[in-house]
Amino acid sequence: MFSKIKTLILDTLFPIYCLGCRQEGFWVCEECFSQIETLPFQVCPRCEKLIIEGGKLCLRCKQLSLKNKDFPLEAIMVSSQYAAGGISKMIHLFKYNFIEDLKIPLGRIMVKSFINHRIPLPDILIPVPLHPRKLRQRGFNQSELLADFLGENLAPGINFPVLKNVLIRKRSTLSQMKIKNYRERRKNIQGAFTVFQPEEIRRKNILLVDDVATTGATLLECARVLKSAGARKISALVVARQEFKRF
Ligand SMILES: [Zn+2]
Ligand SMILES: [Zn+2]
């Protein structure tokens, strides 16, 4: 009852308009949604050069990563282009203006991309965690909302478990957005995560979920920690990837 009244008041005070065409009543209307394109191809997440099915490692990177053990991620799948179809605006409103309902169009874009690339289904989903302090400030973890949506919608008839208390962010880090250098980003995020109850992930195929990846340093660090706690294979699915020049 209370939530109905709250929705009514909010709708009257702050009517919702489609971010694309300003039609009232939707954040993203069906027509504008259908115009959002998923990325037609993925690149190898390690060298970021070769186009490769499902965002997996190219052959050379796979060999190098086996040898150096420097890339414990099987794939990074990027659903859409950051700059395309109002994606960056949606992500911004979702994250910083706390518009939780945007998890639906964003989640749908992720599902569409996942299906297009015929990715093998994971055993479990894990959202990239926020530090508890940041979670308190923001009130929700945007990656968790997306993972919940994916858990229910990734494949018809299957509810994928979403583990929220297994991968933990134990150390608060400087925002990766503030660091412009790839090496510094890797350093900044090192040791930020830990695995609680490793038996939950042992020998499991995991899909990591996040809204935006830039260098992939955060995803890579999560994967490293999960792998050393006994996970079998780790892939990642993000809405978009922000342009970043390595130097
Ligand atoms: Zn529209
Ligand atoms: Zn490669």
What does the model show?
By secondary structure, the chain is α/β, with parallel strands linked by helices. The chain has two domains: 1-35, no CATH class; 40-241, Rossmann fold. Helix content is 36%, strand content 14%. It has nine helices and six strands; from the N terminus they run αααβααβααβαββαβ. It has helices at residues 2-13, 30-34, 59-68, 87-96, 103-116, 132-138, 142-153, 182-189, 217-228, and strands spanning 75-81, 124-127, 167-169, 193-195, 205-213, 233-241. The strands form two sheets. A four-stranded parallel beta sheet has the order 1-6-5-2. It has a two-stranded antiparallel sheet with strand order 3-4. β5, α9 and β6 (233-241) form a beta-alpha-beta unit. The longest helix has 14 residues, at 103-116. It starts with a helix and ends in a 6-residue tail after the last strand. The mean pLDDT is 89. The structure holds zinc ion (2 copies).
Topology diagram in text:
Blueprint lengths: L1 H12 L16 H5 L24 H10 L6 E7 L5 H10 L6 H14 L7 E4 L4 H7 L3 H12 L13 E3 L12 H8 L3 E3 L9 E9 L3 H12 L4 E9 L6
Parallel strand pairs: 1-6, 2-5, 5-6
Antiparallel strand pairs: 3-4
One zinc ion binds next to helix 3.
